Amino acid sequence: MSLEVNSKLEEVILILPYLVLMVTIILSLFIVYSHYISKKKVGDVLFKGNAKFKKILVWTATGLCLVYFFLEEGWFRYGILLLIALLPIMTDKFYVGKQGIKIGLTFIPKEDISHYSQVEDSNEIHIYVKGIDDKLVLSPELGYRSKRIKEMMDIYLDS
């Protein structure tokens, strides 16, 4: 009886890395697809930058990748680790476009944005969305000057 339980446990342990890998790949493909669809909905991009946004789905995929990395041996695990390391970088961006804002994996239509505020002497913008209590913090790339961002946001919300 004990031998039978041990052999089943060994089978599960041998299969576990591949199950984790399959879940990681499926989750990663979903993240990449969501990123692509959200970015496509934005339309013509007015400006972009880094967002300070919680992305639990991305960190879950990264954690699963680390589990696979420590359970499996060989060079393939380094490729998976590199792929998963790129997910947080790819989804950390925001895009302000003519149709709305893409932040993380989420698309926010222009109509849902109630107002914004800009941190004084900074490029940082706080966007307030109808139905969401917290502000969304956006940090446009350094190429955009704070006065120009203010002008673009005023025109953006008035149109």
The rounded Rg comes to 21 Å
Give the tally of β-strands.
7
Q: Low-confidence spans: pLDDT under 50, at least 5 residues?
A: none
Major β-sheet strand ordering: 4-3-2-1-7-6-5
In DSSP terms, counting alpha (H) and pi (I) runs of 4 or more, how many helices?
A: 4
Reading the helices and strands in chain order gives HEHHEEEEEEH
Beta-strand proportion: 15-25%
| Large-scale geometry | elongated
State the end-to-end distance.
74 Å
Would you tell me the overall average pLDDT?
79
User: What percent of residues adopt helix (DSSP H or I)?
Assistant: 40-55%
Sheet with the most strands, sense and barrel status: 7 strands, antiparallel
User: What structural category arises from helix and sheet content?
Assistant: alpha+beta
Tell me the number of structural domains.
Answer: 1
Task: Describe this structure as you would to a colleague.
With 159 residues, the chain is an alpha+beta fold. The protein has one domain. Helices cover 54% and strands 23% of the residues. Strand 2 and strand 3 form a beta hairpin. Helix 2 packs antiparallel against helix 3. It starts with a helix and ends with a helix. The relative contact order is 0.15. The mean pLDDT is 79.
